[in-house]
Amino acid sequence: MFDVQKVRAQFPILSQTVNGKPLVYFDNGATTQKPEVVIDAIAQYYTEFNANIHRGVHTLSQLATDAYEQARNTIQNHLNAKYNHEIIFTSGTTAGINLVANGFAKFVKEGDEVMVSALEHHSNIVPWQFLCEKTGAKLVVIPMNEQGELRMDKFEKLLSSKTKIVAVNHISNALGTINPIKQIIDKAHKVGAAVLIDGAQATPHLRPDVQELDCDFYVFSGHKVCGPTGVGILYGKENWLNALPPYQGGGEMIKEVTFEKTTYAELPHKFEAGTPNIEAGIVLGTAIDYLNGIGFDNIAKYEQELLDYATRKLLEIDGLKIYGTSENKASVISFNIEGIHPYDIGTIIDKLGVAVRTGHHCAQPIMQYFDIPGTIRASFAFYNTREEIDIFVEAVKKAQMMLT
Ligand code: PMP
């Protein structure tokens, strides 16, 4: 049995009041809150074994290195990657995508195509535009339909031997759509294209199996999975990571440096130049262990109940329109109320203690598709409750009354 009150008690921030009201935190798509085990692990690192890693012969450095490498193993197991050197620590999803898009210039020439989807976050668009500017390749976009689903028929027609890489998100941050990535990966591989999956919004809700998916790259951020900011993961297949050039040069990533020539370290160090965010890397392992302790099956089932309940309650409000109505959806609801700017609703419900995101959610092409300035986005985590949804819906109704 999933006991949400027991879970909530593990998140100190959830018991506070905001603007004199109990906090209702529905901005989990932007970042998740942290359980006590994660907060304690941060303090423990600095209290007991803070040291630089992979360098010192001294005991503290060994302890820190072991903990960091143990976190890498935890993430390898979590993603079911074949080797632990296929797990690269980055500073987040954005950094992981930039690393791949930068190095991928080696495999792309003028006239080739790089494919993204209409549902992408800016961080899975702009780095590919850089790549196209640098190489003369063309950016091709998989279109979407009114429900906020990718047009798979169009996708198949757009694929060709010119397609070198397809970069799509697993779950859309702006609409919550769960994309058919297995199908995308298989079809892209048939034309010889590599596939990068942006898992920033998927990893809080499900456990990806990178070998079963057969994706070439999978990226995500620590702060969206109850871990710290400033850390993320790039999974890459060994052969791709060996073929890609290093991204940043510096300490840690070299085998030998002379002024004539430098040779690079083996994976994963080739992509980990400089002192990383050691604490965050270690604690990301703690966060992943915590989530697995709760169980992703429990998380998905409970969040689906929250999503269904909130959708039903919100649709009772006159003039409310939900964007993203696919049947395959994560616990994200993007909506607007006729005649009211999303920002005004967000500001009023904040006064009532409810935290949501308003705006374009770093996905301006989606807003252009619907011809709207933005939406109000409520994104639920496993520590949210039906009672909070009731408070949120009442707050939205109150805002609507005040604004019309
Ligand atoms: N992709 C998606 C789908 C996201 O939701 C986000 C974060 N909003 C990112 C990429 C970027 O993640 P970060 O800012 O942690 O690098």
UniProtKB/TrEMBL annotation:
<dbReference type="InterPro" id="IPR000192">
    <property type="entry name" value="Aminotrans_V_dom"/>
</dbReference>
<dbReference type="InterPro" id="IPR010970">
    <property type="entry name" value="Cys_dSase_SufS"/>
</dbReference>
<keyword id="KW-0808">Transferase</keyword>
<dbReference type="InterPro" id="IPR020578">
    <property type="entry name" value="Aminotrans_V_PyrdxlP_BS"/>
</dbReference>
<feature type="domain" description="Aminotransferase class V">
    <location>
        <begin position="24"/>
        <end position="392"/>
    </location>
</feature>
<dbReference type="GO" id="GO:0030170">
    <property type="term" value="F:pyridoxal phosphate binding"/>
</dbReference>
<dbReference type="InterPro" id="IPR016454">
    <property type="entry name" value="Cysteine_dSase"/>
</dbReference>
<keyword id="KW-0663">Pyridoxal phosphate</keyword>
<dbReference type="InterPro" id="IPR015421">
    <property type="entry name" value="PyrdxlP-dep_Trfase_major"/>
</dbReference>
<protein>
    <recommendedName>
        <fullName>Cysteine desulfurase</fullName>
        <ecNumber>2.8.1.7</ecNumber>
    </recommendedName>
</protein>
<dbReference type="GO" id="GO:0031071">
    <property type="term" value="F:cysteine desulfurase activity"/>
</dbReference>
<dbReference type="InterPro" id="IPR015424">
    <property type="entry name" value="PyrdxlP-dep_Trfase"/>
</dbReference>
<dbReference type="GO" id="GO:0006534">
    <property type="term" value="P:cysteine metabolic process"/>
</dbReference>
<comment type="function">
    <text>Catalyzes the removal of elemental sulfur and selenium atoms from L-cysteine, L-cystine, L-selenocysteine, and L-selenocystine to produce L-alanine.</text>
</comment>
<comment type="similarity">
    <text>Belongs to the class-V pyridoxal-phosphate-dependent aminotransferase family. Csd subfamily.</text>
</comment>
<dbReference type="InterPro" id="IPR015422">
    <property type="entry name" value="PyrdxlP-dep_Trfase_small"/>
</dbReference>
<dbReference type="Pfam" id="PF00266">
    <property type="entry name" value="Aminotran_5"/>
</dbReference>
